[in-house]
Amino acid sequence: MTTPTRHPYLDHPGPIAFAHRGGAADGLENTLRQFRRAVEAGYRYIETDVHATRDGKLVAFHDATLDRVTDGAGRIADLPWAEVRHARVAGAEPVPLFEELLETFPEVRWNIDVKAEPALRPLLELIGRLDAWDRICVGSFSEARVVRAQRLAGPRLATSYGTRGVLGLRLRSWGLPAAPRRSAVAAQVPEAQSGVPVVDHRFVRAAHARGLQVHVWTVNDADRMHRLLDLGVDGIMTDHIDTLRKVMEDRGVWG
After folding, report:
1. Please, where are the H alpha helices in the chain?
2. Cα atoms in the 13 Å half-sphere on the side-chain side of 96
3. Annotated catalytic residue 62
4. What is the residue-level pLDDT of the chain in tens, covering all 255 positions?
5. Which residues form the GP-PDE domain (predicted)?
6. Among 6, 93, 118, 192, whose Cα sits 20 to 30 Å from the Cα of 65?
7. In 3-state terms, what secondary structure has residue 213?
8. Is 226 a catalytic residue?
9. Which of 7, 12, 51, 62 is catalytic?
10. Radius of gyration of the chain (CA)
């Protein structure tokens, strides 16, 4: 059972299925084509990442550089949009502007990992201009960056914990003194970190006691999905969108 909704972003019956980078298993991560495939498969929550180009354009892209997944090269922050737009993921698909994604998929809710500080203000400005506050949850490994986002936007912005907040919640679940911030609406965490379990009954119970949902990334195995759902997690992020859909259908919680 999911925790009570603290923000319209989380207004969803049952556990949330997130398409991680749109469903990265196909090798076309963070592309319009892959996002469309996830939406057509029934996904209404999509995880992606944002970077800002040198001239302030916000792109949906994971890495700081184009090199790993495109036929282009160079740091996105050092390149103008006019150059980034010509890069092709897997040699085939263009790098999308995040604004284009918001407009193309008006029913989708986006979980955004803000990968670098220069992307933060352009993201908040875009959300405000399109009045998309109910459709966005902002996260980052940097707790300080998420705190800045929350301070700039206020309670209309849904945020998840950064690494420091997750650590505080983990300590609290063990009965140790910790006071992670209360403005977050979710703890988005790996199942384990460096071989140390993160998600267990105590962690889920501690999160729910603070009114937080627990979303686990990146889970691609059906047995692990079932185990996590049995623990009571509120969402799963996956590269294998067909697998997660099948698991949730089998449990009667898809939709």
Report:
1. 32-40, 81-84, 98-104, 120-129, 143-153, 163-173, 201-209, 222-231, 241-251
2. 23
3. yes
4. 445 567 999 999 999 999 999 999 989 999 999 999 999 999 999 999 999 999 999 999 999 999 999 999 999 999 999 999 999 999 999 999 999 999 999 999 999 999 999 999 999 999 999 999 999 999 999 999 999 999 999 999 999 999 999 999 999 999 999 999 999 999 999 999 888 889 999 999 999 999 999 999 999 999 999 999 999 999 999 999 999 999 999 999 998
5. 15-248
6. 192
7. strand
8. no
9. 62
10. 18
CATH numbers and ranges of domains, the chain: 13-251 (3.20.20.190)
Catalytic entry in 7, 12, 20, 215: 20
CA distance 173 to 228: 17
The helix/strand/coil state of 104 is helix
Asked if 55 contacts 80 with a C-beta cutoff of 8 angstroms, the reply is yes
Asked whether the whole model's pTM tops 0.85, one would answer yes
Amino acid at 30: N
Task: Give the amino acid at 93.
Answer: E
Tokens for 191, please give them. 């199942």
